[in-house]
Amino acid sequence: MPMAVATSFALIVRLGWHDSGTYDKNIEEWPQRGGADGSLRFEPELKHGANAGLINALKLIQPIKDKYPGISYADLFQLASATAIEEAGGPKIPMKYGRVDVTEPEQCPPEGRLPDAGPRDPAGHLREVFYRMGLDDKEIVALSGAHTLGRARPDRSGWGKPETKYTKDGPGEPGGQSWTVEWLKFDNSYFKDMKFLSQIPLEEQKEQDLLVLPTDAALFEDPSFKVYAEKYAEDQEAFFKDYAEAHAKLSDLGAKFDPPEGFSLDDVTSDEPADEKKEEAAPTPEPVAAAVATATADDNNGAAPQPEPFSAAKYSYGKRELSDSMKQKIRAEYEGFGGSPDKPMQSNYFLNIMILIAGLAFLTSLVGN
Fold first, then answer.
1. Distances in Å between the alpha carbon of 285 and those of 194, 232, 315?
2. Which of the pair, 122 or 353, is modelled with greater confidence?
3. Which of 117, 274, 282, 293 has the smallest count of CB within 10 Å of its CB?
4. Is 18 among the residues known to form the active site?
């Protein structure tokens, strides 16, 4: 894994989360309800305080969108986020796609829907924000575990030290303060480190050079949160399972899908025989994290290598139900040739002639040989 790619993981995960994390379950209308709709690409939302620094994530993603405009921003943000988790060593996220983008800045959600790192009542604030999205205590704690990746920078979030013994030499752009020692690896070390730090005096915590936000500390202070935090510190498999489910749920919040049920990149099911399914199944997509490395960004994680190109065909969902607009287009073309919705065309002389010509050409080639 190229280092320039690995150092972008946390940034890309944050981009996906902050696009979907504005969802309000109390609002039915789309896009007023917020959520995963691609609105974070617009300047008004990028300027929200909680989104400081995410312009750099957008710069990494934009060249892919420019090359493959058929992919919605909403899907691309979530696809990149889930891929980054997996590529960093985390679980595979059971994602679905087909999200529809908002089209103008006026459709951005209001500021203030994302979590604050240092509220007066950390546990209460987490519940207020995540309950509004329809998430529960287990999902709050599981999602917090993504802090195992990345660093906080005071010039972006206002939190963390300018550098620590774990970040002063990079990799990537030096500096910032990480929650874990191995901050490029997705595992359960966040819970292990937070548990250890919660058991020592504050002055000793500072000597560890690891970041502990008020909302991090709340996971081992609040009785309900602590049950899950303790469990994840001891059992990485349980953490991965709960995290994958929570991440998938978060990525769908507020989204409008086309087709309405969405589609999966791994879904190759059809009614054809097994040998035909194998031949026609849509291939698995290239990791978006690799394609991201081809972009040039100002947050500078070193020169980007040249990975395999992102294949738009691999984003296709294969044999699935067509959208209503596509059905109407096909029907119009069919009727244009003389067919109707109620009965097939009586004959197709052109097709018959072409079959006859092809047969004669084949016989002629046999005689010639």
1. 35, 30, 6
2. 122
3. 274
4. yes
